[in-house]
Design goal:
Shape of chain A: globular
Number of helices of chain B: 0
Number of strands of chain A: 6
Number of strands of chain B: 51
Distance between the termini of chain B: 50 Å
Number of helices of chain A: 5
Protein name (chain B): WDR1 protein
Structural class of chain B: mainly beta
Pfam family, one (chain B): WD40
CATH architecture of the domain at 155-286 in chain B: 7 Propeller
Order of helices and strands of chain A: EHEEHHEEHEH
Strand order of the largest sheet of chain B: 1-2-3-4-5
Helix content of chain A: 25-40%
GO cellular component, one term (chain B): cortical actin cytoskeleton
Family (chain B): Belongs to the WD repeat AIP1 family.
Largest interface: A-B, 19 and 16 residues
Largest sheet of chain A: 6 strands, mixed
Radius of gyration of chain A: 16 Å
CATH class of the domain at 155-286 in chain B: Mainly Beta
CATH superfamily of the domain at 155-286 in chain B: YVTN repeat-like/Quinoprotein amine dehydrogenase
Structural class of chain A: alpha/beta
Largest sheet of chain B: 5 strands, antiparallel
Distance between the termini of chain A: 30 Å
Keywords (chain B): Repeat, WD repeat
Strand content of chain B: over 45%
Oligomer: heterodimer
Shape of chain B: elongated
CATH topology of the domain at 155-286 in chain B: Methylamine Dehydrogenase, Chain H
C-alpha cells in the first residue's frame, strides 16, 4: 500500500479457497499493472491427499513449487502462499503431530533489480494484511532459504 | 419485526487529543418474534472491547464482553435477527470481524481489507450481506453467513468513511473523503449510480457520514464542507442543503436519522437538530462538554451556572432550573488549557487556567474578553470578591486583581494550592505547602494590599475553600479526607469537633448552603456528603453521586437545591429536604 500497489480481488478469492477448503497447494503472486495478482497456482490432487504427511513425497512436491517460484533465471521477485504439511515434534512429545502451516513467502533474490526488491518489500504489508491473520512469514533471498528443510524449520511451532 | 437503531457517533477530529470514551453506541430493539432475545445494547471503546448489555430487565446486566480484533473499533452493526454482530476497526492483524452475540464464535472471515476499516453494515434483509469500507479506499462486500469475500469495490479514490444499507436492504450507499457517494445494489454489489448523478461531487469536501431515512426514500450526508445534504433517493438529487457555518469547527462529522429527527454532530461537539422545512436554522443545538469538567461557578442570584472543562471551553447554563434551562458556550479565543479555577461575582466571571493566564469575562454575555492576564507562574486557584476583586494563588506569588488589572503581587516562599476571599472583602486565605508541611495563610486586604495576619498549620494540603455566606466560618477541603472548619470571628481557631473523616478520598470541593447551616462536600470517592455544624457526625451521604467519576464542584442554588458537577461531564441537581 505504501507503494500504491493494491491487491486484486482474485488474490483474496483464491486465498479463501486455499485457507478454508484446502483446494490449492500453493499460490504464487506477482505485481503486474500496479496490482498484486495470481501468477500461478497448483491444485491439490488425490495423490497429495494420500501422501499428505509423507516427507519424501512432500520434498518432491516442494521441488516443483521452488521451480515454479524462481522461474527460469531465478532473479524475479515473487510472493507465495504455501500450504505446508509437517510432522511437528516438540521436546517431550512422544509422537509427532500431523499439522499444516500456511507460509507466506517473500521471494526477493539477491540477483533481482533494486527497483523490484523495493517494490516487493514496500507492498508486502498490503498483501499480508489483506490475507488476514494466521500465516507465518518466510523471507527468502537465495535458494538455500527456499529449501524444504528451511521451510520445515520455520513451520515448526515454537 | 421492528428495528430501531441509534447510530450516533461523536467522532473527534484526527488531530485532537484523546479518543472519546464511547466511540459510539447503537441499540437494536428486536421484539415481537417469540424466539427473540431481549433487547440488547452494545458499546465499544478504544481498547476494542465490545460489551453487550441487557436493556429490558431492571438490572442491566453485562451479558457478554469480547475483544474481537485487539484494537480500537470504529463501527458496529447488528444482524436483523439480533444474533450476529459485525464490527470493524483498527486491529493488529484483522480489520473486520463477524461473530455470534451469544458465544463470540466467528461467522466467517472478513478478509481482503488492507488498512483500517472505518465503517461496516449488515444487510437488514435476507440473503444476508456485509459491507465494509476503510482507509484502503476500497469497499469490500461479503456474502454469507458464514461470510466470505465476494468482491471489492474500488470506485472511491480516498478513504471510505461510511457505508450504509437502506432499511429494505435493496441498496447501499458508500461515502468517502473524496467528496463522492456511490449507490450499489444491496444483493449483488453492482454499481447503480453515483450519488447526485455524477455530474459533480456530492459535496465539495470529504463526506464523513450518511444515514437513510426510516422509510428508505431519503438519505442525509454530512461533510467537511460544513454542510449536511438531504437527498431524494428516487430522483437521486438534492432536496435541501443545511449550511452549518464557515468555521473549521462547523465541519459535520456524523449524522443520524432517528424517527422524525435528523441530527448532525459538528467538529466542536455540538449536536444539531435539523429542520427539514427550514434548512437555514437548526431547531435546536445541544452544546455540552467534550472533556471532563474541571470547575464550576454560580452567579450570586443563582440564575446561571458556568462550567469549564479540561479543554478550556466554558459553558453557560442559564435559567437555572436544570430541567428547563438554556445553554450556551462562551465563544471566541479563550483558555487553551484546563480551567483550574473559576468564580463569578457581579458582572465578572474570573477564570484561571493551566495556560498560565487569568481572564475576566463580562457576564451575562457569551464572548471571552479581549485579553488574558498572563501570569509569571501557574495559577492554582482563584478567589473572587465584590467590586471586581479577584485573588489568584500562583505557584510562587499571590496576585490581587481589580477589574481585570493586576494591582498587587505578593511573592511567597511556599507553593499555593487554593485561594479564597472572605465575604467581607477584607480577608484573603491561601492554602500552601512548603517542604511537605501544609499551612493556611490568612492575609488582611486593605487598599488592594495584602498584609500577613496569621498562619495556621494544617495536617494536610488544602484543595478548596468555602466561606459560609454569613462570613462566620471557613471550611477547608483537605487531601487527608478531612474538612477543617475554622471560626473567622475567633481569629481562625478550629471549631472543635468538626475535624472528622468526611469522605473516603481527597475532598475536591465544598459549598455552604445560603443560610449557612449545612455544608456539602464532593470528593474523588464519587460521593457527596452533607452535614451541619450543629451535628457534625450526623452526616448524610449521596453515594455514587456521579458514578465512577470524581466530583469536581458542588454549589447550592437554594437551601433545598444542590448542583454538582463531575468528571462524567454531567451536571446534576439534587433536591434536599432536611
Amino acid at each position: 500500500m505504501a507503494s500504491g500497489v493494491s491487491v486484486a480481488d482474485e488474490v483474496v478469492t483464491v486465498w479463501q479457497d486455499l485457507k478454508i477448503r484446502h483446494k490449492y497447494k500453493y499460490v504464487i503472486y506477482h505485481i503486474a499493472g500496479g496490482q498484486v495478482r495470481n501468477q500461478a497456482l497448483d491444485d491439490v490432487n488425490l495423490e497429495d491427499k494420500n501422501n499428505e504427511y509423507d516427507t519424501e513425497y512432500q520434498k518432491q512436491r516442494h521441488q516443483g513449487f521452488v521451480d515454479v517460484l524462481k522461474g527460469d533465471d531465478a532473479n524475479t521477485c515473487r510472493y507465495a502462499v504455501y500450504d505446508f504439511s509437517i510432522l511437528d515434534q516438540k521436546e517431550g512429545d512422544t509422537a509427532a503431530r500431523k499439522t499444516n502451516k500456511i507460509l507466506f513467502i517473500v521471494w526477493c533474490p539477491d540477483t533481482a533489480t533494486i527497483k523490484d526488491k523495493m517494490l516487493y518489500a514496500s507492498s508486502k504489508d498490503a498483501v499480508k494484511k489483506a490475507l488476514g491473520s494466521g500465516i507465518t512469514e518466510v523471507q527468502a533471498t537465495d535458494l538455500s532459504e527456499l529449501s524444504f528443510d528451511y521451510f520445515w524449520e520455520k513451520a515448526q511451532s515454537k | 419485526m421492528q428495528i430501531t437503531e441509534k447510530r450516533f457517533k461523536e467522532r473527534k477530529p484526527k488531530y485532537a487529543g484523546l479518543p472519546p470514551k464511547f466511540l459510539q453506541t447503537k441499540m437494536v430493539a428486536a421484539g415481537q418474534l417469540p424466539w427473540q432475545m431481549p433487547l440488547h445494547a452494545i458499546a465499544t471503546d478504544e481498547h476494542g472491547k465490545v460489551r453487550i448489555w441487557d436493556t429490558v430487565n431492571k438490572e442491566h446486566i453485562l451479558k457478554n464482553e469480547f475483544q474481537p480484533i485487539g484494537g480500537p473499533i470504529k463501527d458496529i452493526a447488528w444482524s436483523p435477527d439480533s444474533k450476529r454482530i459485525a464490527i470493524c476497526g483498527e486491529g493488529k492483524e484483522k480489520f473486520a470481524h463477524c461473530f455470534l452475540a451469544d458465544t463470540g464464535s466467528s461467522v466467517g472471515e472478513l478478509m481482503g481489507i488492507s488498512k483500517v476499516a472505518n465503517s461496516i453494515d449488515y444487510r437488514p434483509t435476507r440473503p444476508f450481506r456485509i459491507v465494509a469500507g476503510g482507509d484502503d479506499t476500497t469497499t469490500t462486500f461479503y456474502e454469507g453467513p458464514p461470510f466470505k469475500f465476494k468482491i471489492s469495490l474500488t470506485d472511491h479514490t480516498r478513504f471510505v468513511n461510511c457505508v450504509r444499507f437502506s432499511p429494505d436492504g435493496e441498496r447501499f450507499v458508500t461515502v468517502s473523503a473524496d467528496g463522492k457517494g456511490f449507490i450499489y445494489d444491496g444483493k449483488t454489489a453492482e454499481l447503480i449510480s453515483e450519488l447526485g448523478g455524477g455530474g459533480s461531487n456530492a459535496h465539495s469536501g470529504g463526506i464523513y457520514g450518511c444515514c437513510w431515512s426510516p422509510d428508505g426514500s431519503q438519505l442525509i450526508t454530512c461533510s467537511g464542507d460544513k454542510s449536511v445534504k438531504l437527498w431524494d433517493m428516487g430522483q437521486n438529487s438534492v432536496v435541501s442543503e443545511f449550511k452549518m457555518g464557515t468555521a473549521i469547527e462547523d465541519q459535520q462529522l456524523s449524522c443520524l436519522w432517528q424517527g422524525d429527527y435528523i441530527l448532525s454532530v459538528s467538529l466542536n461537539g455540538f449536536i444539531n437538530y435539523l429542520d427539514k422545512s427550514n434548512p437555514a436554522t437548526p431547531i435546536r443545538i445541544v452544546k455540552g462538554h467534550n472533556q471532563p469538567i474541571s470547575s464550576m461557578a454560580v452567579t450570586e442570584d443563582k440564575s446561571t451556572i458556568y462550567t469549564a472543562d479540561n479543554s478550556g471551553r466554558i459553558n453557560i447554563l442559564s435559567n437555572c432550573d436544570v430541567i428547563s434551562c438554556k445553554h450556551d458556550v462562551i465563544c471566541g479565543k479563550g483558555h487553551s488549557n484546563k480551567v483550574s479555577g473559576m468564580g463569578v461575582q457581579g458582572g465578572n466571571l474570573v477564570t484561571c487556567s493551566m495556560d498560565d493566564s487569568v481572564r475576566y469575562t463580562s457576564v451575562p454575555g457569551n464572548d471571552f474578553g479581549p485579553d488574558a492576564i498572563t501570569m509569571d507562574s501557574q495559577p492554582q486557584g482563584v478567589g473572587v470578591g465584590k467590586d471586581g476583586l479577584a485573588v489568584a494563588a500562583c505557584t510562587n506569588e499571590v496576585v490581587v486583581f481589580r477589574n481585570g488589572r493586576k494591582v498587587f503581587s505578593l511573592p511567597i516562599d511556599y507553593q499555593a494550592t487554593a485561594a479564597g476571599v472572605h465575604p467581607n472583602q477584607a480577608t484573603v486565605v491561601v492554602g500552601g505547602e512548603k517542604d511537605k508541611k501544609h499551612a493556611l495563610h490568612v492575609y488582611n486586604l486593605a487598599n488592594d494590599t495584602l498584609v500577613d495576619f496569621k498562619v495556621v498549620s494544617l495536617k494536610a494540603g488544602v484543595k478548596a475553600f468555602a466561606f459560609s455566606p454569613d462570613g462566620r466560618y471557613l471550611s477547608c477541603a483537605q487531601t487527608s479526607r478531612h474538612i477543617l472548619t475554622l471560626d473567622t470571628s475567633a481569629s481562625y481557631e478550629e471549631v472543635q469537633g468538626t475535624d472528622a473523616w468526611m469522605q473516603n478520598a481527597v475532598i475536591t470541593c465544598l459549598a455552604w448552603n445560603p443560610s449557612s447551616t449545612h455544608l456539602a462536600s464532593g470528593s474523588l470517592d464519587t460521593n457527596i456528603v452533607i452535614w451541619s455544624l450543629a451535628k457534625p457526625y450526623d452526616r448524610f451521604q449521596l453515594k455514587s453521586a456521579h458514578p465512577m467519576n470524581q466530583i469536581v464542584g458542588v454549589e447550592w442554588l437554594t437551601d433545598n437545591k444542590l448542583i454538582s458537577v463531575g468528571m462524567d461531564n454531567a451536571i446534576r441537581q439534587w433536591d434536599i429536604t432536611y
